[in-house]
Automatic annotation (TrEMBL):
SUPFAM superfamilies: Periplasmic binding protein-like II, Winged helix' DNA-binding domain
Domain HTH lysR-type: 11-68
Family, similarity comment: Belongs to the LysR transcriptional regulatory family.
Keywords: DNA-binding, Transcription, Transcription regulation
Name this polypeptide is given: LysR family transcriptional regulator
PANTHER family assigned: HTH-TYPE TRANSCRIPTIONAL REGULATOR YBHD (PTHR30419), NITROGEN ASSIMILATION TRANSCRIPTIONAL ACTIVATOR-RELATED (PTHR30419:SF8)
GO molecular function: DNA binding; DNA-binding transcription factor activity
Length: 314
């Protein structure tokens, strides 16, 4: 049986071109002419292909060379591979021209509504052929993806890394946080405090995450111990869904996320001022490696937007 390793070591693009030419012209002589090679060289190349697949690919008839079921199968995939290679050439051309390419961004959830999405909208308007992937996860996991080359940049934190110095870090700001409940939660006093929510069940971030540590500090400042019946999740979607469906739950979310959900009637923000300062976040890229043109453009647009939002001296 032909294996992928065997194909990768023996198959050549020119062989696939010959198959397509034979399918189109039904003649070894004509296919060889299109390929600018002798008929004997073309016949030898076809023999090599049939050896790779251990099957005859064409039948000779009065109508010329007709592909059999094996031939049709290989030709179909040859055309798909050719199309993919053509798309690759187009993508390279688009990248060189500055119009296309691929951009993979990782972002903490709090930065997505007001930081990532507006800049992506602006970037898309100027580069409509750009392919974009957005990953929302913890900073620790996204830094690993950045190290492996799966992400071009991260909007997150480097303090969670054992080696923060190996990254370029440009601070954006601190991430404001809000205490939230579901929209259907019964009204609470205007002067509500964290200690008033002790009977609620908390939806919290997993251990070792900065926002989990912040909540633990807030509990300690209020003279409370962290409840043992928490629900732990790093998913914004899970947190919001739980709060919407259960009025006995409470959580802490980045204010930008909380405000977005509140505007759409999903959550309510409680008037509780948190005393602990949240950790800053920023633009993170790899040191010692080039930044792709789309990533550089995204960072440039983001800096312009931030400068307009927070002029020097404010």
């Amino acid at each position: 049986m032909t294996t992928l390793d065997a194909l990768m070591s023996r198959l050549r693009i020119r062989q696939l071109q010959l198959l397509i030419a034979l399918d189109e012209h039904k003649s070894m002589h004509k296919a060889a002419g299109v390929m600018s090679m002798t008929q004997s060289a073309a016949s030898k190349m076809l023999g090599e292909l049939e050896s790779i697949f251990a099957a005859q690919l064409f039948e000779r008839s009065k109508n010329g060379m007709i592909p059999n079921q094996f031939g049709h199968c290989v030709i179909r995939h040859a055309r798909l591979l050719t199309m993919d290679l053509s798309a690759l050439c187009d993508d390279i051309s688009e990248i060189r021209s500055g119009r296309g390419g691929r951009l993979a961004i990782g972002s903490i959830m709090g930065a997505i509504p007001e930081i990532v999405v507006p800049v992506l909208d602006e970037l898309h308007a100027s580069q409509q052929n750009l392919s974009v992937e957005v990953v929302e996860d913890t900073s620790a996991k996204m830094l690993l993806q950045l190290d492996e080359g799966h992400l071009d940049l991260v909007i997150g934190r480097t303090v969670v890394s054992d080696q923060p110095a190996k990254y370029r870090y440009q601070k954006i700001g601190d991430e404001p946080l809000s205490v939230v409940v579901g929209h259907a939660h019964p009204p609470l006093p205007e002067n509500v405090e964290i200690r008033d929510l002790i009977d609620h069940r908390w939806v919290v971030y997993p251990t070792q995450m900065p926002l989990r540590a912040l909540l633990e500090r807030e509990m300690d400042l209020a003279g409370l111990t962290m409840p043992g019946n928490t629900i732990s999740t790093a998913s914004t979607f899970v947190t919001v869904t739980l709060l919407m469906q259960n009025t006995g739950l409470v959580s802490v979310l980045p204010t930008d996320i909380a405000s977005l959900c509140a505007r759409h009637g999903m959550l309510r923000i409680l008037p509780i001022r948190l005393r602990s300062q949240s950790q800053s976040f920023g633009i993170v890229t790899r040191k010692g490696g080039p930044i792709s043109p789309p990533a550089a453009r995204f960072i440039e647009m983001l800096k312009v937007r931030l400068a307009a939002a927070w002029p020097p001296g404010e």
